[in-house]
Amino acid sequence: MRDIKPVLKLMLLEKKEVLLAALLGFLAAGASVGLLASSGFLISSAALQPPLYTLTASIVLVRFFGLLRAGSRYGERYFSHKATFTILSHIRTHYFDQVVARIPGLFRSKRSGDLLSRITGDVENLQFFFLRVVYPPVVMVLVFLATIFFASLYSFYAAVLLFTGFILTGGVIPAWFAWKTRQKAGRVRETRGALSTEVTEFMTGYRELKIHGQTKVKSEDVQSLAKAYTSLQQDEQHQLAGSESVNIFAGLMITWLIAFLAALEVQNGSLDGVWLAAMILVSLSVFESANPMASFPKNYESGRQSAERLSLSEGDATDQNGQQGQALSDAIDTIAFKDVSFSHEGSERFALSEVSALFKRGQRTAIVGASGSGKTTLMEVLLGIHMADRGDVLVNGQRLGDLDLDSCWSQFSFSLQDNHFFYGSIRENLEVPGTGAADQEMTDILERLSLSHLTLDDQLEEGAGNLSGGERQRLALARAWLRNGAVWLLDEPLSALDANTYDKVIKEVFDVSAKSMMILITHQLRGLEQMDQILVMDQGRIVERGSYHDLMAQKGWFYALHEVDKQMIG
């Protein structure tokens, strides 16, 4: 029920349409019962040749119920579907806001294919929550109560049997099928998510699979999941058909019993014979409103599980961007780590352990270390993608967790290991930082980054697949250059470049960022003589710090890394 509450809250945003749909649905179902009851009474009474006014009144009543049913049904369909589509819009927006608020930390715990399955399949599934879960029981209860009251005016036994049928078709039978199928609940949605994930990976990784001759194996895995998904859907439909059949059978049995007992009451004189047909037709009609209850357990469980998958818990996200903090109005002058420790969810090992460091504006800092030493994790904690388990990250003396991350990020110039490029022109990709730079300025930056062979009108494929690794890295630097923020955060920005191009480009970057705070994460030790401080990391700790010459003189960790790097180059 806890997972359903957000959906119910979003539904209440359209309470006017919801109430109108329920009211009109009750009128439509009640009019259907009234139409058959008055028709049965008209046919029976006509055979006895009653006064003309009795027939006239009955005919008018039949026409009234017929028109009421048609008009109410139209209004019910209109308002219920209007509410449904609006609620669906609210659900989509709500889920999208959750995902956006947790990017990029969310993608470390959720696979993109699974997220795609949620935002399509699960959201689409919830569009029926009102029509198939909330709406049917409300209408059924109202119609049954009104019908039982009407039947009790003429036949006590008919009222008792209708009440029994109400309990059976509205509660006992659906509950029994729900218990019977509980173990299989959720497997359809889980398999759908797995299938979506595998298809996404198959398509995005097709080139590598083709080169390594593994497309057949991966295709068989996808086909196996598709067959399992189809099989589960078929089982689900068979169970639903079984539930509907039993529900209809129970309603017919109750109708037969009402016909039998009502006939006995007519025989002993306790029920006027003209009402016999009306009682039978009323019973047939009223159980039509109970038919949707056969699928109620399946629809409820399906909706609950979809809501659960869409309800991203705090554990799913490692950033706190969803919490609006204080905006940072001043330019960033200092960033300080004070005994910061952090471990990834589910891991007992600290990715960062008691890290303390100070970064100042106008100062260049290089962070070096072997792969897996914690360099990138330190950057992610600095950005607020992860929040420290212990210790504090202070920006201008304020806790990062108390600040609005957007206001902090607006002062950063980024070039990360994995930079995304959109399908479109280079101009459109350089406009991502939103600086409003002129074409000439962009062209000048491309030239200074040794990208003069590219033009602003050149088209990029998805992910810039038509550029080399080095070109993509320099294009990411161009975006950082256009923003030229108070903090330059560069994570392996030029690892794909040859030595000559690296020296030329890094000099240009150093020149343009001279007044900014620069934090350079790198495996390459070229050009670190120009850094004001170097932090050497190992197993999540800072094991050495100092200038290039000081660290080389100490002949410690940095010296060892430098010697290994020199041997590899040689």
From TrEMBL:
Membrane topology: Multi-pass membrane protein
Pfam families named among the record's database cross-references: ABC_membrane, ABC_tran
Sequence ranges assigned to domain ABC transmembrane type-1 in this UniProt record: 19-305
Record field: transmembrane: 53-72, 128-150, 156-179, 246-267, 273-290
Cellular-component GO terms for this entry: plasma membrane
GO MF annotation, one: ATPase-coupled lipid transmembrane transporter activity
Subcellular location: Cell membrane
This protein's UniProt keywords: ATP-binding, Membrane, Nucleotide-binding, Transmembrane, Transmembrane helix
Protein name: ABC transporter, CydDC cysteine exporter (CydDC-E) family, permease/ATP-binding protein CydC
Provenance organism: Bacillus selenitireducens (strain ATCC 700615 / DSM 15326 / MLS10)
